[in-house]
Amino acid sequence: MRTRFTLAVACVLLATGCQQRLTEEECFTLLDKYVELLLESDRPGSVPPDRLKLKSEARAKANRDPAFAECSDRVSRSEFECAMRASNPDGLEQCLL
């Protein structure tokens, strides 16, 4: 019984505590997703070149933002996966709270 409990605790810790950190590119993918959702919400008729320009501008601003540099430390794998499934900006934001 004690061995089974220890094994169960180890499984929970492995499943929750040892998740792989986000890469820098995944943080930028998250940013791109957010920008895309904002554009769909606020500017549904925007053309692809404008969308690409706005994503590029958002990435440039993020590169200068010290808070964005902490993305890998602050956003968990499960939060990232939730955010990537979001269908609107509010849903994405809720995942990151």
Describe it:
It is built from seven helices and no strands. Helices cover 78% and strands 0% of the residues. The chain has one domain. The chain has helices spanning 2-17, 24-42, 48-64, 66-69, 71-74, 77-85, 89-95. With 97 residues, the protein is mostly helical.
Rg, nearest Å:
18 Å
Q: Helix share of residues?
A: over 70%
The number of E-state strands comes to 0
User: Helix and strand string, N-terminal first?
Assistant: HHHHHHH
Entry keywords:
single chain, 97 residues, mainly alpha, 7 helices, 0% strand, disordered N terminus
Quick structural gist:
The protein is mainly α. It has helices spanning 2-17, 24-42, 48-64, 66-69, 71-74, 77-85, 89-95.
Layout of secondary structure:
Blueprint: H1 2-17, H2 24-42, H3 48-64, H4 66-69, H5 71-74, H6 77-85, H7 89-95
